[in-house]
Amino acid sequence: MIVAERKPIEEILDMVKDFKKILVVGCKGCVTVCNAGGTKEVGILASILRLARDKENNPLEVDELTLERQCDPEYIEQLDGKAGDYDGILSMACSIGPQYISSRFPKSLVYPTLNTNFLGGSLEHGVWAEFCQACGNCKIHLFGGLCPIARCSKSLLNGPCGGSSDGKCEISKDVDCVWHLIVEKLMEQGRMDMLTGVKPIKDWSTSRDGGPRKIIREDLKL
Amino acid sequence: MRLRYPTSVKIIQVPCTGRVDIIHLLKSFEDGADGVYVAGCEEGDCHFLTGNLKARKKVNYVKKVLESLGTEPDRVAMYNMSAAQGPRFAEIAREFTAKIKELGPSPFKGFAAKAA
Asked: Is B40 within a domain?
């Protein structure tokens, strides 16, 4: 899923400093799962903003709403007739949300309250890590089910670099060397022959390097 | 036990402090409370095993929020006691009330409470 984190309160307060009435819109998708922008977090942010402005004697009216998702236009329609009531709309979805809201309501001022960080999954309750770089050409099966594009700091395809030490990446002791994990896994599976031969140069045009991407499914278009 | 504790303490009963969430603590301040404390079981004695531990984490989160808003983090606190310790309950009520009296009234004017 997309993993995001709420921006610092000071940054968000600065966005709304000239407003009197705002709407905070949450998302029941990825950001609910990573506890960043779901219904609970909308409530918490709304409360914090009210308290902060109470303290300055400059009250802020904050309405709260959570949509199923903010990455389908049909869900954004639920804001029809409401968006115009607010000085500003704060989206608690990943960065796609505020873009969709802004697109449907061009006269509204829309702000992101989250920083979208990475594609990843949870390691334990409250801890998420990056697992995918959306390179557009998944080949994890060649690496024992692990992704060296996302999880190797240098996205190496042919083995660890000299910085791999005690199973950790040289950039931080908190980062596993995924190549260490790949080799251990393939040794366990008795498939080290997967690593013989040099992998060809990766064609990065399927990744963001090829420009903004789009997928068209003719079989699904109405 | 007919023990006395300050009338300014309003009790909200929950089956376990694990039920208390961040929003409850923040809303209390929105509604005009000068301080909020969570009274849970002794650590290790939670009937639901980790409810009181989770509550402490949420209290710590709200302490950080209060700090970031330029207010005293001590306005929110976590206390642990056995359900059988009546005198300790009263003692904590008195202790926390005294602490809040010292800190003064809440800097949040309670517009939400007034508007309601």
From this structure: yes
What tokens were used for A20? 């009197």
Domain that holds residue B37: 17-104
**CB nearest A51 (choices: B21, B22, B108):** B108
Q: Determine whether the interchain pair A43/B23 forms a contact, defined as Cβ–Cβ distance below 8 Å.
A: yes
Q: Which domain holds residue A15?
A: 2-117
Looking at the structure, tell me whether residues A8 and A108 fall in a common domain: yes
Last residue within a domain, chosen from A91, A117, A143: A117
Q: Assess if residue A215 is contained within a domain.
A: no
If one counts the domains in chain A, the total is: 2
Cβ A47–B23 below 8 Å, yes or no? Answer: yes
Entry pTM: 0.93
CA of A49, closest CA in chain B: separation in Å? 9
The A residues from 161 to 190 touching B (CB cutoff 8 Å) are: none
Q: Among A117, A143, A167, identify where a domain stops.
A: A117
Question: Is A55 touching B (CB cutoff 8 A)?
Answer: yes
pLDDT of residue B110: 59
pLDDT tens readout for residues B45-56: 999 999 999 999
pLDDT at A3 over 90: yes
Please judge whether B30 and A54 are an interchain contact, meaning their C-beta atoms are less than 8 angstroms apart.
Answer: yes
Question: Using CA atoms, how far apart are residues A31 and A4, in angstroms rounded to an integer?
Answer: 7
Q: Decide: residue B67, CB within 10 A, 0-12 exposed, 13-18 middle, 19+ buried.
A: exposed
- Which residues of chain A lie closer than 8 angstroms to B68, CB-CB? 8-10
Provide the CATH number for the domain around residue A6. Answer: 3.40.50.2300
Tell me the ipTM for this assembly. 0.92
The amino acid at residue A154 is: K
Evaluate whether residue A72 is within a structural domain.
Answer: yes
SS3 state at A66 = strand
Using the Cβ of A43 and the Cβ atoms of chain B, whether some distance falls under 8 Å is answered with: yes
- As for how many domains chain B has, the answer is 1
Name residues whose C-beta falls within 8 Å of residue A5's C-beta, 6 or more positions apart in sequence.
Answer: A36, A114, A115, A117
